[in-house]
Write a structure and sequence with these properties.
Chain B: InterPro entries: Cyt_oxidase_maturation_cbb3 (IPR004714). Chain B: This is Outer membrane protein. The structure holds two protein chains of two kinds. Chain A has twelve helices and no strands. By secondary structure, chain A is mainly α. Chain A has one domain. Chain B is elongated, with a radius of gyration of 20 Å. The chains are: A mainly alpha, B mainly alpha.
């Protein structure tokens, strides 16, 4: 029998869910495509310093202006199509998922504070543009959300053989993760605005915007919101592949799931807390901030996948780890 | 460096083309199940050859 993986498409997926998944995949792919191209267009701007005083500078500047316009033209569809769920989340009235909806605010703020000044700089033909940071931010954010969505979706459509306790655990852990993420985002936004103002008034006016954008990008709790869904969907995969669990084996898997979810949660929190001061001192460029965000969400996905893989590789019952793990747990 | 002024629009058009192709591929179901189609050749019905 083919093993059920964390992110596999459930067989009985209804049409609208399948369509939703396709939309997410399409927007993810397009966002990554545009991100790579816009990064190409941004790169000559980084090298401009080397050409100051040479005769090709004038031509390079013309090329940079053209590249800025092209980046702008590529970023607009990303914001309108790929980032559509984010704008929807911002304008949606708070529902059962009100915590979740609130998370779209910092993201939207981050995108707009990077995008609007970039458009102004493009039109005026001077100043820095951050289109590459915007498209990276959207692409990485969508990566995290796609992983989270797949994990969550496959959990919803293959309930057979999964103990009800997993659902209870999941609800409890989700509530906890939401609470932590909410506090985290509030503090991060406050920090971002204060550091932006301090940079603008006292340190370096030109550098205030990148600092603000970097902190907004880092305030995105993608990794935090992935922590629980990926862990519980790993547990679901384990249960679906091993039907003959005794209650205490189930309990053992559940405790490992809790452990993994907590690792995800506190690990990504620690990572963000570590990076925030660096960004406040202006050491982290917006696109570096986007990469740190991607790293934390990928590590979370990998950590959950490791939980799943542990049982998948060894065959649970015969595993020598089983007794050892139990001794440690008990 | 003059070649940039030709290459930049070309790369732009390439990205647009690839984006459209990707969109089409996703919505025609190319990525819905990446394993099943690969396996289907092994589960082929070989019984009716002459």
């Amino acid at each position: 029998m083919k093993a059920v993986s964390i992110f596999s498409i459930p067989k009985n997926l209804p049409v609208h869910e399948r369509q939703k998944r396709r939309h997410m995949l399409a927007s993810l792919g397009i966002a990554w495509l545009v991100m790579m191209q816009v990064m190409m267009f941004a790169f000559p701007g980084y090298l401009r310093g080397d050409y100051i005083g040479t005769e090709s500078l004038a031509m390079l500047d013309t090329a940079i202006i053209i590249m800025n316009w092209l980046s702008f033209a590529l970023t607009v569809p990303v914001l309108l199509y790929c980032a559509w769920p984010i704008w929807q989340g911002v304008f949606k009235k708070s529902s059962a998922h009100s915590m979740r909806v609130n998370m779209d605010w910092p993201v939207a703020l981050g995108i707009l504070t990077a995008f609007i000044p970039s458009v102004i700089a493009t039109v005026n033909q001077r100043g820095e543009v951050y289109f590459e940071s915007v498209s990276m931010f959207v692409a990485f954010l969508l990566t995290a959300r796609y992983l989270e969505f797949c994990a969550e979706q496959s959990a919803r459509y293959s309930e057979v053989g999964v103990p009800a306790k997993l659902d209870q655990e999941r609800t409890i852990m989700t509530a906890k993760a939401d609470k932590i993420a909410f506090a985290f985002v509030m503090i991060q936004i406050l920090l971002a605005i204060v550091s932006g103002i301090v940079w603008y008034l006292f340190i370096d006016r030109a550098h205030a915007l990148p600092v603000l954008v970097a902190l907004f990008v880092m305030s995105c709790p993608c990794a935090l919101s992935m922590a629980v869904p990926t862990a519980s969907s790993a547990a679901r995969g384990i249960f679906l592949n091993n039907h003959s669990f005794t209650p205490e084996q189930q309990e053992f898997v559940l405790s490992l799931t809790r452990k993994t979810a907590n690792q995800n949660l506190y690990g990504s929190l620690a990572w963000h807390i570590l990076m925030a001061p660096l960004a406040m001192f202006g050491l982290v460029a917006p696109w570096v901030a986007a990469i740190t965000m991607l790293i934390s969400s990928l590590v979370v996905a990998w950590n959950s996948w490791r939980l799943y893989k542990k049982f998948h590789n060894q065959g649970f019952i015969a595993s020598p780890d089983w007794t050892a793990g139990k001794a440690v747990q008990g | 460096m003059e070649s940039l002024f030709l290459l930049l629009p070309v790369s732009f058009l390439f990205v647009i083309g690839i984006g459209i192709a990707l969109y089409w591929a996703v919505f025609s179901g190319q990525f819905d199940d990446t394993e099943e189609n690969g396996k289907s050749i092994l589960e082929d019905n070989d019984s009716n050859h002459t």
